[in-house]
């Protein structure tokens, strides 16, 4: 079964009834009301060896960082700050103490960087290493949801796309050449191994009155933008000639004859913010992004309709809805 079908089945039978639940299944985080008037955010993610990471090339320290980053990115996508975390680890009989020390060091770095409190978790032995992090955060104001996009909004991303997917391509297909390629493609490899969530940008955008909808890009822009389009009952049009990528990404695609647009829009693991900006507020948003040492790239337009369309250089439209990473 497809991931979306499984989630749909769960939603049919398990619905939140408590009046304090503001938003349940269907966004980057669930949202529930807090006693101080500031909403709480909660998210959870599981990384499984052989599906989300490969220990033959993923160092323990960077894996610890990434396990936290993917959850922090969800909190950032709602405009919040991370506060408390629990971590559950399934380890194998082959897990070495030195590896575990480095993994914990990576977790600790992210906890200290973002002032997160570890408040619990679980450990269990199993056949395959897996890491589950549950993260609670708080929104400063009202959280930003996926359902706020409107026709006329400009679609923005918080950085160049496809870097992590390109790094993964190198590890999977040219592992024996990594030592000779690592300097030339260092930024691509780093984006795959240890992405950094855009917490400051998310907070700044949420505190402004400039944006309609927001989420992070984990399964590829084609899929994650489709979530915004569906929740907002609009169509998203992405301009192919506006897709931002790093120069290293372009060189890699030419070197290995990869389809750059497909990799940039469908590769996943970007963990950049994707958001829509009210018409006429573009300059303010771009200045706001620079004020927190981030970037904001306009890549398309929200229109009436449904789905996600890619507009090519000749004006041709191609439906790319949900053409990103699929959990199987």
TrEMBL record:
Query: What EC number is given for this enzyme?
Result: 2.7.4.16
Give the residues the record marks as binding substrate.
52, 269, 325
Binding-site list for Mg(2+) 3:
28, 74, 216
* Residues annotated as domain PurM-like C-terminal: 151-307
Q: Which residues form the PurM-like N-terminal domain?
A: 26-138
Q: Which residues does the record give as Mg(2+) 2 binding sites?
A: 45, 74
Give the Gene Ontology MF terms in alphabetical order: ATP binding; magnesium ion binding; thiamine-phosphate kinase activity
Keyword Repeat among record annotations: no
- Catalytic activity annotated for this protein? thiamine phosphate + ATP = thiamine diphosphate + ADP
> Which pathway does this chain act in?
Cofactor biosynthesis; thiamine diphosphate biosynthesis; thiamine diphosphate from thiamine phosphate: step 1/1
Q: What else is known?
A: Reaction mechanism of ThiL seems to utilize a direct, inline transfer of the gamma-phosphate of ATP to TMP rather than a phosphorylated enzyme intermediate.
HAMAP family given in the database record? TMP_kinase
NCBIfam families annotated for this entry?
Answer: thiL
Name the protein family.
Belongs to the thiamine-monophosphate kinase family.
Protein name per its UniProtKB record: Thiamine-monophosphate kinase
Per the record, the gene is thiL
């Amino acid at each position: 079964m497809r991931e979306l079908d499984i989630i749909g089945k769960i939603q049919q039978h398990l619905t939140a009834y408590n009046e304090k639940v503001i938003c349940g299944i269907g966004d980057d985080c669930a949202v529930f009301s807090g006693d101080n008037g500031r909403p709480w955010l909660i998210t959870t993610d599981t990384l499984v060896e052989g599906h989300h990471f490969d220990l033959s090339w993923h160092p323990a320290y960077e894996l610890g960082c990434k396990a936290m980053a993917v959850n922090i990115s969800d909190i950032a996508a709602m405009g919040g700050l991370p506060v408390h975390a629990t971590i559950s680890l399934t380890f194998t009989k082959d897990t070495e103490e030195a590896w575990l020390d480095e993994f914990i060091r990576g977790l600790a770095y992210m906890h200290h960087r973002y002032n997160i409190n570890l408040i619990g978790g679980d450990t269990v032995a199993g056949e395959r290493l897996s890491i589950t992090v549950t993260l609670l955060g708080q929104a400063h104001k009202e959280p930003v949801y996926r359902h706020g996009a409107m026709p006329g909004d400009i679609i923005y991303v918080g950085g160049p796309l496809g870097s992590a997917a390109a790094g993964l391509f190198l590890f999977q297909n040219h592992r024996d050449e990594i030592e000779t390629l690592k300097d030339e493609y260092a930024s691509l490899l780093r984006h795959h191994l240890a992405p950094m969530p855009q917490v400051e940008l998310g907070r700044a955008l949420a505190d402004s009155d400039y944006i309609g909808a927001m989420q992070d890009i984990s399964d590829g822009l084609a899929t994650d933008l489709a979530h915004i389009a569906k929740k907002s009952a609009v169509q998203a049009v992405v301009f192919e000639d506006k897709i931002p990528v790093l120069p290293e990404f372009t060189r890699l695609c030419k070197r290995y004859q990869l389809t750059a647009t497909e990799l940039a829009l469908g590769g996943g693991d970007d963990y950049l913010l994707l958001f829509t900006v009210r018409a006429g507020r573009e300059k303010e948003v771009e200045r706001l992004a620079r004020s927190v040492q981030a970037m904001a790239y306009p890549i398309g337009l929200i229109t009436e309709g449904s789905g996600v369309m890619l507009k090519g250089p000749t004006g041709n439209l191609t439906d790319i809805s949900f053409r990103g990473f699929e959990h199987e």
